[in-house]
């Protein structure tokens, strides 16, 4: 027997299109509030005329408030969003996308959030929220959570709340990497500290450069304070990490010309933990980094890889070709569809 949604798709497809549009408007307002109509129309790619009509309807249903500071979602609207989430995933086909992606990438599990973070900045917030929920489900009695840097990990930190863990669960956040010269707010140390602050838990930082020479590496890792943090990292039962575009990460690290040439000649498309991968998942270059390494991941119970956007599709697929068995991929609709479209 066909489900009600399947019947609606056949007999009332226009109704489902309107539902999806209004749901997306509500979601966008909830992430961007207070937000002006012009800003929202640009973010969603809708004309101001269409958006004005839809917002007036949502206001009449007491789902949004409109003030001089901008539009915001009401408590009724927020509750409706939560109730609609499962239904909208089925309507948009995201559930099926997850099944297909899990099979294609041979992963333990895949979580896909709606949208494309390349075009809709608030989608990164959804990635953060999805990762926070999955991380919470992974908690046991004693937990060490190793965290890398990047804007996506920063979004995960923003999604954490005081009810992240209960009194029976010990949680320690530890920076899995040193700094790589990017904005301080996106470095692992900063993100790790923010996660601890928002969840009311403890953290340990790793105040060392991310990339060093072999000589410096041998010296630094023997320092008692550094050695202690590295030991904690190796004991982590949960690892959160992003997946980078190879060339973007190489430039961020201010890679030397000869090494950049090696990355280019190797046709690297993805990067994680200082390893650069080609589309087949082969390591074409590796930098000497301090912190968590790829070889450490097979011993970790839960590895959560978070990355989204169509532009990251090749990087995600490249990394996943050499991922540890326990990896769960958390991505968005844009990247997922692009990966599935690739042969």
UniProtKB/TrEMBL annotation:
<dbReference type="InterPro" id="IPR036388">
    <property type="entry name" value="WH-like_DNA-bd_sf"/>
</dbReference>
<feature type="domain" description="Sugar-binding">
    <location>
        <begin position="90"/>
        <end position="341"/>
    </location>
</feature>
<dbReference type="InterPro" id="IPR048715">
    <property type="entry name" value="CggR_N"/>
</dbReference>
<protein>
    <submittedName>
        <fullName>Central glycolytic genes regulator</fullName>
    </submittedName>
</protein>
<dbReference type="Pfam" id="PF04198">
    <property type="entry name" value="Sugar-bind"/>
</dbReference>
<dbReference type="GO" id="GO:0003677">
    <property type="term" value="F:DNA binding"/>
</dbReference>
<keyword id="KW-0804">Transcription</keyword>
<dbReference type="InterPro" id="IPR007324">
    <property type="entry name" value="Sugar-bd_dom_put"/>
</dbReference>
<keyword id="KW-0238">DNA-binding</keyword>
<dbReference type="GO" id="GO:0030246">
    <property type="term" value="F:carbohydrate binding"/>
</dbReference>
<dbReference type="Pfam" id="PF21715">
    <property type="entry name" value="CggR_N"/>
</dbReference>
<comment type="similarity">
    <text>Belongs to the SorC transcriptional regulatory family.</text>
</comment>
<keyword id="KW-0805">Transcription regulation</keyword>
<dbReference type="InterPro" id="IPR037171">
    <property type="entry name" value="NagB/RpiA_transferase-like"/>
</dbReference>
<feature type="domain" description="CggR N-terminal DNA binding">
    <location>
        <begin position="18"/>
        <end position="88"/>
    </location>
</feature>
<dbReference type="InterPro" id="IPR036390">
    <property type="entry name" value="WH_DNA-bd_sf"/>
</dbReference>
<dbReference type="InterPro" id="IPR051054">
    <property type="entry name" value="SorC_transcr_regulators"/>
</dbReference>
């Amino acid at each position: 027997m066909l489900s009600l949604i399947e019947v609606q798709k056949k007999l009332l497809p226009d109704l489902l299109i309107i539902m999806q549009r209004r749901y997306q408007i509500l979601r966008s307002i909830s992430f961007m509030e207070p937000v002006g109509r012009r800003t929202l129309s640009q973010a969603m790619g809708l004309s101001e005329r269409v958006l004005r009509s839809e917002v007036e309807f949502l206001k009449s249903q007491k789902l949004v408030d409109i003030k001089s500071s901008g539009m915001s979602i009401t408590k009724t609207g927020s509750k409706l969003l939560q109730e609609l989430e499962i239904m909208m995933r089925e309507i948009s086909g995201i559930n099926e996308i997850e099944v297909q992606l899990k099979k294609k990438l041979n992963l333990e599990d895949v979580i896909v959030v709606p949208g494309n973070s390349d075009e809709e900045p608030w989608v990164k917030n959804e990635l953060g929220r999805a990762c926070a929920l999955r991380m919470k489900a992974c908690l046991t009695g004693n937990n060490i959570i190793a965290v890398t840097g990047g804007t996506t990990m920063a979004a995960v930190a923003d999604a954490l709340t005081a009810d992240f863990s209960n009194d029976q669960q010990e949680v320690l956040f530890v920076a899995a990497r040193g700094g790589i010269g990017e904005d301080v707010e996106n470095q692992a140390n900063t993100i790790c500290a923010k996660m601890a602050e928002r969840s009311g838990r403890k953290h340990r930082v790793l105040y060392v450069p991310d990339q060093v020479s072999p000589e410096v590496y041998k010296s630094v890792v023997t320092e008692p304070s550094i050695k202690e943090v590295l030991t904690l990292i190796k004991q982590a039962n949960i690892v959160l990490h992003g997946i980078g575009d190879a060339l973007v990460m190489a430039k961020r690290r201010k890679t030397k010309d000869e090494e950049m040439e090696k990355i280019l000649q190797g046709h690297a498309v993805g990067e994680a933990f200082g390893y650069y991968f080609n589309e087949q998942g082969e390591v074409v270059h590796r930098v000497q980094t301090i912190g968590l390494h790829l070889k450490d991941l097979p011993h970790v119970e839960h590895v959560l890889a978070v990355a989204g956007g169509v532009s990251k599709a090749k990087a995600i697929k490249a990394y996943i070709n050499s991922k540890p068995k326990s990896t769960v991929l958390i991505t968005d609709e844009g990247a997922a569809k692009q990966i599935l479209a690739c042969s």
